[in-house]
Amino acid sequence: MDVRAQGLQAWVDRLNQSELPALASVVKDLQRLAVHEHASVQQLADVLLRDAALTSKVLRVGNSSYYNPSQETIKTISRAIVMIGFENVRLISLSVTLIDSLLERAPREQLLELLARSFHAAVQARNIAGYVLSRHDEEVFIAALLYNIGELAFWGCGGEQVDDLAAQLAQPGVKADEAVQAVLGTSFRQLSLGLVRSWSLGELTSLAHSQAASSDPAARAVALGVQISEAALGGWECERMAALTRAVAEFTGVEEADALQQILASADETVEVATTFGASRLGRLIPSTDPEQIRLQQAQRQAALLQPNLLLLQQSLQDLGLMATGGGDAGIILDTLLGGLHHGVGLERVMVAVLADQQTRFKARCAIGEGTEAWLQEFVMPAEQLEQPHIFSYALRHRQALWMGVPASYNLADLVTQPLRQCFGSGMFFIAPLVAGAREIGVIYGDCRLSGRALKHEQFVAFQRFTQLTGRCLESLSKRPVS
């Protein structure tokens, strides 16, 4: 069960100690090197070589046209430092570490959207800084990327309070700042500044949040990048974007038309940069500059908020009811179940896990929803695990449909084991046994983790009804004479 944190220091401690300790450790090591003028190439290499995956990603970024236009192949960290500079390698490492740590769990839609916005801000800020600064534009990139580090860390850490805030923000007419204050006991801005200090993320990142930002060219570039990334969500032709285009033109000394072209080019470049950093999935969330793509992205944002469809729900239940009296094979039954729960009930991700390999393991049989393809390849759980019992075997053994993440099931929270959290993320979900008569088939899992919205009572009632009908269908199928 989550320990609820309240107030700035409690959140900084929680993120450092239980949620993101590996990230905090590497970030501090990399930042410590920044304050030592005589930090050696070997010291930086040693920090990176602790993690082979991180090293390979830093080399991939270092070999990209963004950092290495000469395209001379870089095969070692020490060579990367010689070719693109100590500071560039350190900041690339910092960025890659942050992104990997946030994306390694099942990331919520709020986190993906904010990370896409952060990348967009970073590229805009760096390119604006290129007009007015002779150096330090990489520091501008990282300061803009980390500008919302507090909010990124919060959405990335999972847990009960994340679900609470997501549910509050989904309410019509809610004031976001008040909701954040009520749930966290502090603001996202204060949490960002708290992590900047705790992780020693540098003066520029801190300065960008202060009143003095407008008088420092680097901090001003960061602020403009952040503001453009936010305004772009309202469309390139909105009033706020027009005002920011004028501000960029004035700051950089170019014509407004040229400033707008630079801003649009930076948006397109962001998609490439995100891919270079191993975050290609963010591309769909970065505002496109192509008119047709703009319309498509707006439609996708609406579609992301999947809504229950009562007619489809009733039709799916009716179809299952007919199949329970005969007709339909296992594939059709399960397709009807998945379609009904996803499009009818409005569950964003649904999986049927069946007992396999002489009933020794749960394996994903079918799934629906964004990102669930990986479950079909990777999801495997031991059916019985005495040293670490889990919620899948509990639900099936006790023949009980469960709504996890609400007070009624808090006593079972320990059964949501670390492997399950790594696969599905943290927060609310439904789980129910799939039983055909006396025969145990497996379990059905459903959640709304993509948007982070809270599940509802009527969805749980429908989920149970689908589960019971599917069991009856499979029982009927097993009794049918073989032709």
From TrEMBL:
Every HDOD domain range:
20-215
Origin: domain of life: Bacteria
A single Pfam family, by name? HDOD
UniProt cross-references to PROSITE patterns, sorted A to Z: HDOD (PS51833)
Q: Where is the signal peptide?
A: none
Q: What name does UniProt use for this protein?
A: HDOD domain-containing protein
